[in-house]
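Pipeline run #58 for the internal structure catalog. This entry was flagged by the ingest filter as a single-chain record with no existing model, so it goes straight to prediction. Upstream metadata was stripped on purpose; only the residue string is passed forward. Reviewer on rotation: M.T. Logging verbosity set to normal.
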Amino acid sequence: MNVYPLVWRFPVPLLGHIEITGYGIMMMVGFLMGGWLIALELRRRGLHEEYAADITVAAVIGGIIGAKLWYWAMNGGSLFSRGGLVWYGGFVGGAAAVMINGWRKQVPLRWTFQIAAPSLAAAYALGRIGCFIVNDDYGRPTNLPWGVKFPQGLPPSTAENMTSLFGIPMPPGTDPQTVLAVHPTQLYEVAIMLAVFALLWRWRLKDKPVGWLFGVYLLFAGVERFVIEFLRAKDDRLLGPLTVAQVVSMVLIVIAASLIAKYSHSPSPDPGPYLSQTT
């Protein structure tokens, strides 16, 4: 099956045109959905719902800056190009901005972690839908019946690109311009992270100390990405056969284990004056 990128171009007087992509739309939807889920959790707990907007704005600004800086550090190029948004960079940048904002509002970090955990899984799944409809971050060639071809992908899933960009060998005699069916790893991640969200959304009701749920989210996120990387079409090996993302995933798993161990057996902190507001 051939899949083409979802892009709308609109003429603008004096400026040429503006371009709206499916990825941009889904990234916006992901942030809005995440903010809405956080607001629901704050309402359930009787806490200050405006903190959801604070988190969302900080995540948007920090996430975009972090994603661009990560891509620039790994690949060079212009910081102001349309492309170059890397999830791990966005996660680090967004997390830093949210933590700084929480510190400014005197909200204990564990409370921010706890109320944001399920929304992170949901927002990530929505973002991966954007990757699919913009034809980016796909997998290695496959003969499975659900393999997808990206003739206009970023880059196109041709035999030539598989070899020259990703170091994937092709059978002798393969036409370099042949568009190959590849694993739709974006959709694999959508399915997995939606399942993770469903679990976290249910587990948030457990009688556990505040903060532990974030550790569980990090554990799932790290394991999911580590496994998916084996199917991804990419060539950024850092430690032997492991990619940069897999190395970062291992770091996340270690952090997750330490947070779960630490937070699961310690009393919950007071939410603080800002979060305790009800008006």
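catalog note: The chain has a mean pLDDT of 88.
catalog note: The CA atoms of residues 136 and 154 lie 5 Å apart.
status: ready for reviewer M.T.
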